[in-house]
Amino acid sequence: MAKPRSFNDRLFALRLDRSRNDLFGMLERLYGHRPDYPRFAETLTEALKEAWDARPERLKWRDMQRDLEPDWFQRPEMNGYVFYIDRFAGNLAGVAEKLDYLQDLGITYVHFMPCLKPRPGDSDGGYSVMDYTQVNPALGTMDELEAVTAACHERGISVCIDLVLNHTAKEHDWAQKARAGDEGYRDFYLMFVDDTLPKAYESALVEIFPANAPGNFTHYDDIDRWVWTTFNEHQWDLNWGNPQVFLEMVKVMLFLANKGLDILRLDAPAFLWKRMGTRCQSEPEVHMLLHALRAASRIAAPSVIHLEEAIVSPAEMLPYLGRGPHDGKEGNLAYHNSLMVQFWSALAARDTTLMTHVMRTHFPPSVTNATYATYLRCHDDIGWAVTDEDAGAVGVSGFGHRSFLSDFYEGSFAGSFSRGALFQVNEATGDKRISGSTASLAGLEKALDEGDAEGIDHAVDRILMGHALIASYGGIPLLYMGDELALLNDYSYMQVPEHAHDSRWVHRPMMDWERAARLPDGGSTPEGRVFDGIGHILARRAAVPGFHGAVATEVLDTGQPGLFAFARRAPTGSIICVFNFTETWTGLPASWFAAQGATVMQDLLSDSPVAGPGGSVALPPYARIWVA
Ligand code: GLC
Predict the structure, then answer these.
(1) Which distant-in-sequence residues (6+ apart) come within 8 Å of 515 by Cβ?
(2) Among 309, 351, 390, 603, which one carries the catalytic annotation?
(3) pTM above threshold 0.85
(4) Cβ proximity of 551 and 474 under 8 Å
(5) What is the pLDDT of residues 210-226, one digit of tens each?
(6) Kind of pairing, strands 167-169 and 305-308?
(7) Whose CA is closest to atom 7 on ligand 1?
(8) How far is the CA of 34 from the centre of ligand 1 (A)?
(9) Helix (H), strand (E), coil (C) string for 518-573
(10) Catalytic position from the list 22, 267, 445, 490
(11) Which of 70, 155, 59 is nearest to 332 (CA)?
């Protein structure tokens, strides 16, 4: 490269220097043995510089701001909202009109669910992308995405979109070329001339969609090749062992970053690297790739952060936030799948022993330059990521507990409060996952049907307790569209041919704007109470500096299996958060809170004193308190 001259060039050189080792240190380990490595490294550097040169000044300013405030995404005012553009507002132009609603709710982060051009027909909810440089025409244009993103920025809202790294649609240009016989593009995918290797790999792989997309490979007669298809047949896994795939994806990533997007949700990264004899999930190379991708963003689009979607077991999850050599350098955000699973598990069991064990054993009090994306529900099913070891450690059978949870949330377990739908029952392993909306899983659907007033109260309180939990544990709480209105399961998906096979659509309803218009209603309906309660929780969270993502979270023992508790150890004092997972009244001595570090004995959530000195703190059914 020529000697840097302009301010712009010098700034790029500075940014490249800052992250050079992170980028090339990883890439050398991944690809350094290849004869084409030096050429690849050069081309990549050029691509970074080109993206930097193309980056609008407005975004370079944002880069600078975030360099000065690198903790922006860890701050307590970060509150997320996740939605499908069409289901929320019809299209991108419609989203622009709903920003008041989001702002009133206290939202500072929006995730537009897959919005890049999907393949026609079933596209796995948009996760089968055929063109990363175009917006789904049904939703709008790239210019509109850029405009709505800029409008969000004006209101202090950051924008997240999905970047599907593991696969493209088989209709993607690269896949089309591969199919037409172009050897260069064949090497973008994992193709096999016969089934010897696929069979050998398959023996250690798990099936993601066993019920409707069994196996991990698909044979195409026209090219007489087996193609690696972890998810659906139309989603072709990319070959990340080929540096050209890395290069092309970096270009895509920076192209999107230059549209103003703030957070890239890296979809299904666990699957990026394949190794014979393993499950081909979370291999060490995956973390090298993610470290290198983060470095690429940091060089050419420094205000952009990465959210990693690794829905894996507790011990496997943490590395996505960067462990060992990747500490502070991998995902800025990762879904806290375990907190979500443990919330539902403890709610069904009325027992937090397993939750306390898992949260304490697998998650350190804090992570570097990163934080969690906490959530109760999302567009996907719930897989019961409870290992046999963790279950065994608290004296329950892993398989038994996982089966119990599916039966409970499906509603078939006697006495269950829930209504849900099974997802991807695996006859061979007995594994079954669950779909359903927060409100239906928490008991509202059943209680409303049965006119059970107490059941309704409990359901509302479960929903609010869950939101108070994800708002205080540490990380950005992600509110899933419609949960603030307590939307129930939507069974109409069964009438849609492209969706009928996929029960996840039961919790992907249309936004109910009529219901939203009736709220707030002074808490006279269950949805009114949920709406007020969630808005209140998000507002209170934003006002508590101790909920900053960098503040340590220490899981506590209360001596009561129905309670889950943790302390946020802020420099200004501890906040003791307690949640009652049962429908029974209980209490804790005020002295217990004092011993954990509470000083004011004030509940920051209700903003009222919790008990007099020496007294006891009452914990009603599904209580949630944040005691300072
Ligand atoms: C992610 C998405 C899920 C999709 C899968 C394959 O897990 O959240 O909806 O089916 O990736 O792209």
Answers:
(1) 485, 487, 527
(2) 309
(3) yes
(4) yes
(5) 888 899 999 999 999 99
(6) unpaired
(7) 268
(8) 32
(9) CCCCCCCCHHHHHHHHHHHHHHHHHCCHHHCCCCEEEEECCCCCCEEEEEEEECCE
(10) 267
(11) 70
Is 63 annotated in the active site? Answer: no
Rounded alpha-carbon distances, angstroms, from residue 200 to 204, 217, 270, 284:
8, 11, 20, 21
Q: Give the count of beta carbons closer than 10 Å to the beta carbon of residue 284.
A: 14
Look at residues 443, 446, 475 and name the one whose alpha carbon lies nearest to residue 461: 443
User: Which of 267, 340, 382, 423 is the pocket-test mutation for ligand 1 (most atoms within 8 Å of CB)?
Assistant: 267
Which H/E stretch holds residue 145?
A: helix 142-154
Beta-bridged to residue 422, according to DSSP, are 434
With CA atoms as reference, report the closest residue to 353 among 564, 210, 202, 184: 564
User: Amino acid identity of 221?
Assistant: D
Q: What is the pLDDT of residues 42-101, one digit of tens each?
A: 999 999 999 999 999 999 999 999 999 999 999 999 999 999 999 999 999 999 999 999
Q: Is the pLDDT of residue 623 over 60?
A: yes
Sign of CA dihedral 288, 293, 294, 299: positive
Q: Is the CB of 236 under 6 A from ligand 1?
A: no
Residue 106 CB: number of other CB atoms within 10 A?
19
CA 231 to ligand 1: nearest atom: 6
Residue 427 annotated among the catalytic residues of the structure: no
pLDDT tens across 469-499, in order?
999 999 999 999 999 999 999 999 999 999 9
Q: How many residues does the chain have?
A: 628
Q: Which amino acid is residue 157, in one-letter code?
A: I
pLDDT in tens, 573-611: 999 999 999 999 999 999 999 999 999 999 999 999 998
